[in-house]
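Appendix C: a fully annotated inverse folding record. The material below is reproduced so that readers can follow the format used throughout the book. The structure is listed first as tokens, followed by the designed sequence.
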């Protein structure tokens, strides 16, 4: 909490010929309209709330805005579906390619057996030699041999194995490198083809690469379309919620004419209808309150004016002479009646401000004269409370403003400073000095001040910021 209170505002320096509509600044905030208004209060932000400390992923995800949650969920489901389908397709495609490769090799082994049988029947080894040459030229066939019914190799890629036992060949064979396809001859004997496993795997990879490329392209297209659809659905879902949020904030700021649309969703539309009905009822209550408030304050002016007139007649001796004590008492009554009348006028001005019917009479105003009048007005009160009134005026101090409203502003600021300044040792200081194209005004007191958390309520209607002193002595 600060140790002193300070209120300041800035007004544009008066320049002869300056037209209404020039810039006026209050509280250091520039406003582009003629007259003096309070700066906008409150600050509302939309955006994501990020966790300030490490938390589980789920908790952080739940902290995202609804639109991002919706989009991320759709994206995750789309990617998960693509990965699962790709894995299933990979397994089935691999089995299909390997099965096809095994079937083709088995057919080749059967053809090799037929060639060996034809060479034996025709007793023409040239047939077998030609077929063996064709197999040797194949990229995938690592070895091929033909063994008779006794298990003796009669033909082989490696001539050194001809005449040796087929069982010996199988013993030294590294089966991890080859896939074997065998076939039997009708009259006894076997043939065997050994294909490289690496070659088979390369065929599988080539086939799967083409398939996965197509799947990836389709998945990318589907994911893109899914993202667009999720963006559309998320926007369609969250737009009415955002409208409701903005409408709630507007109602909190006193705008009861706000209405929201629920979109095409029946559930959200029902919520929007309830919200609009609530806003309409609040608006009716607010208008009724304003009407009663305006009517009561307006009707109070007539009896107050009559009381003032009667007091003036009595003090002037219109109904006989008064003693000094009676005259003093009537003077006190008259001052309190005028105070009440000023309060009523303030209430009517507030009603005009809310209705947007405030008018400004812009003219050249010397702030030094305004300060002198305000200090004279509160001189007696300050003396009774033991508060010193000070001023520091640095010319030029002529500005373009509404004289009546400037007087009102100074009176309010100095009155508030006097109320919170400590008795006997209090001090209220009014400073007026030029700054660039403006005149800066400060009203400073050595009171308790306001805590930071209460300063945003400083300009609220009938608001008493947290930590400030309550109004004492009302009605006494």
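Designed amino acids, in order:
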């Amino acid at each position: 909490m600060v140790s002193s209170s300070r209120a300041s505002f800035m007004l544009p320096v008066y320049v002869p010929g300056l037209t209404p509509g020039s810039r006026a600044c209050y509280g250091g905030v520039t406003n582009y309209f003629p007259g003096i208004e309070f700066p906008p209060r409150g600050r509302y932000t939309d955006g994501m709330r990020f966790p300030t400390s490490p938390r589980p992923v789920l908790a952080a995800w739940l902290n995202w805005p609804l639109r991002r949650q919706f989009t991320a969920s759709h994206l995750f489901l789309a990617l998960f579906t693509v990965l699962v389908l790709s894995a299933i397709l990979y397994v089935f495609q691999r089995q299909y390619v390997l099965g096809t490769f095994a079937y083709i090799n088995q057919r080749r082994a059967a053809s090799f057996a037929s060639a060996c049988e034809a060479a034996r029947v025709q007793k023409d080894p040239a047939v077998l030699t030609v077929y063996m040459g064709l197999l040797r030229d194949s990229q995938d066939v690592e070895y091929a041999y033909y063994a008779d019914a006794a298990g003796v190799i009669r033909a082989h890629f490696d001539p050194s194995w001809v005449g040796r036992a087929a069982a010996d060949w199988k013993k030294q064979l590294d089966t991890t490198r080859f896939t074997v396809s065998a076939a039997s001859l009708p009259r006894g004997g076997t043939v065997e083809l050994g294909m490289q496993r690496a070659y088979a795997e390369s065929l599988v990879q080539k086939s799967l690469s083409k398939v996965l490329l197509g799947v990836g392209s389709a998945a990318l297209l589907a994911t893109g379309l899914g993202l667009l659809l999720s963006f559309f659905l998320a926007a369609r879902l969250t737009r009415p919620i955002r409208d409701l949020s903005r409408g709630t904030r507007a109602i909190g700021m006193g705008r009861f004419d706000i209405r929201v649309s629920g979109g095409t969703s029946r559930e959200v539309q029902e919520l929007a209808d309830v919200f609009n009905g609530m806003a309409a009822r609040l608006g009716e209550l607010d208008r009724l309150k304003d009407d009663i408030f305006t009517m009561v304050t307006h009707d109070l002016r007539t009896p107050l004016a009559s009381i003032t007139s009667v007091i003036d007649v009595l003090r002037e001796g219109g109904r006989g002479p008064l003693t000094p004590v009676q005259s003093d008492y009537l003077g006190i009554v008259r001052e309190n009646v005028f105070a009440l009348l000023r309060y009523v006028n303030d209430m009517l001005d507030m009603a005009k401000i809310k209705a947007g019917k405030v008018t400004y009479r812009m003219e050249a105003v010397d702030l030094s004269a305004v300060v002198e009048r305000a200090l004279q007005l509160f001189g007696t009160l300050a003396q009774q409370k033991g508060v010193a009134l000070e001023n520091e005026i640095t010319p030029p101090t002529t500005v373009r403003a509404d004289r009546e409203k400037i007087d009102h502003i100074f009176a309010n600021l100095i009155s508030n400073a006097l109320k919170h300044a400590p008795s006997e040792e209090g001090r209220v200081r009014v400073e007026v000095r030029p700054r660039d194209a403006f005149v800066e005004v400060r009203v400073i007191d050595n009171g308790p001040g306001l805590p930071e958390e209460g300063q945003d309520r400083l300009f609220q209607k009938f608001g008493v910021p947290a930590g400030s002193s309550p109004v004492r002595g009302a009605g006494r």
